[in-house]
């Protein structure tokens, strides 16, 4: 079913505007000969505090708790008095730490600077992974990124040093892999400024992707608000084997729940099948839970997590987690809002796409589906790695497939790229020979960064508009996401299936049953992949890429050039003028899906994430206008001419036809809180069909703001160009605190008010 969104011009333009404390071990870093300073002294586990909060809540609710509830409620700011009702109330939480990728960290740090606070209140880190464009190969691309992004990296490094934030330099790896290797642990609550932060759920953590404004709240020591999530249980039975991988679990679940089925819920995996999945495999499953709209995903603590913790130098954490293991698994008899059951014995390898990650096909059927739908069968490029699938096990299984082909004299028919998830993974797979195998079969090893997964790919083998197929082990495959070509048909699957399809060169190949032909004409079938869960020797940490902040950075300076087109210090948004919002011109009525990729795509625009005015030139340029089915072509109702969405918005602003921002949707908005923090009004229609009553040339008034209160609907008056009017009821989910944000102009403005 189509989703529709409507926006009214804001004209600041941007949308995102016991006492038992276990200190992290020093043994691993000493053994690895890498600075231990990445582990902050304040980064400790307090399972006794978690236990205390859970006991309070369990007594109040008088029922068994899911694992998600234990960890979330275990981090309540006020467990004695917090109202708890899944799917309805807002929880005030105290996350343990914050992680930011370098694109979103720019605005988050600019906001933190504007707060006037001297230092972050919780352990926080910045990870340089988003600004490295894939072009030639790892070393060359990294060197170019350091040069092109020098100003941004210098800002993030110096701001981190001044305000107490750890800094992972470019080349260190993808944020989610670094978190899994260093910061996630069973029972921790971490928020990250990236939608795939839930990757940490593979280590029994509640890791949630948020907007930069939420990160600022937590770094400022303010309780963080989260709508009390529902809990969807996925019961796993049976055992993974053969060509079936952890990726197939989430590909199957995505097909069941669709891109919206997990909205407002935590996906909690449980059951006997869990033990057949590696820790990094669980992380893969949790990572892609973002594609079904889930708040996050999580697995219960087990021996696979214990093994991973020990292998990554955190044996002491594993020992304490064992002591408190009852906190880290669901209670017997707990209830889920929805249950899905998957038998891993029966699960077949899957491949999802094109153009959406919930269009699920068994690999055995995708060739026929492609022929039926006119999708190109030839695989132009196979891409493995990314934050979803770049573990040691992933690379090993892909290499085992590649080795079979090499032994028979075959190489990839398609282009083939490999993205290590971290410097530690890169160094270890190079040491253990996987990189050589993947290179010999035709692979190019890219930088330890996001790269093509987020559109950072200077692709040159096809022209824009040329219809073609790529297969990836990534998580998203929306139109033009990877290469800015709307004609690229992108499919997501496991690294081993990507490797097999890249060797075969076609979608119409099922490695479970089909044969390849050697140069001599011999037919052979690939054996199922195999790969060690973890290296038999210790991980090779590679180069030390971490910068720890000094104990006192107060004397340090952070410079932002006023003439910069990459960075811009923030000016406070205007306060609400204490009146209803009258006669606001509709900017665009959006048709179809309206994801973050449509609202503010990544790729080349990432360079402006620290410059509010410049990044606003990316606002809604990927959304389809309902008036003419065109992208980035809307009517300027002051001039009668058509122009791009940001251009028309800027013109309205210059003519003072603007208002505090309104964001309306018929099904709701996923990231409402982040919009609220920017002083916007995210609203939904009481009657979803009322969306159809709005015309692109309408003027809208929002009434009832003088008596704005939680649970009290607002009223929209539509003034049509023919002189008629209609009145609609609009719902909102604002609580008292969030209303104060709106009235102050933003959460940041409110934070400053409270300091005086």
TrEMBL record:
Keyword Mitochondrion: yes
Organism per entry: Haplochromis burtoni (Burton's mouthbrooder)
Gene3D superfamilies linked: Aconitase, Domain 2, Aconitase, domain 3, Aconitase, domain 4
Keyword line: 4Fe-4S, Iron, Iron-sulfur, Lyase, Metal-binding, Mitochondrion, Transit peptide, Tricarboxylic acid cycle
Cellular localisation: Mitochondrion
Aconitase A/isopropylmalate dehydratase small subunit swivel domain boundaries: 584-654
Cofactor (UniProt): [4Fe-4S] cluster
Pathway where it operates: Carbohydrate metabolism; tricarboxylic acid cycle; isocitrate from oxaloacetate: step 2/2
Protein EC: 4.2.1.3
Taxonomy, superkingdom: Eukaryota
Protein name from the UniProt record: Aconitate hydratase, mitochondrial
Residue stretches making up the Aconitase/3-isopropylmalate dehydratase large subunit alpha/beta/alpha domain: 69-505
Biological process per Gene Ontology, one example term: tricarboxylic acid cycle
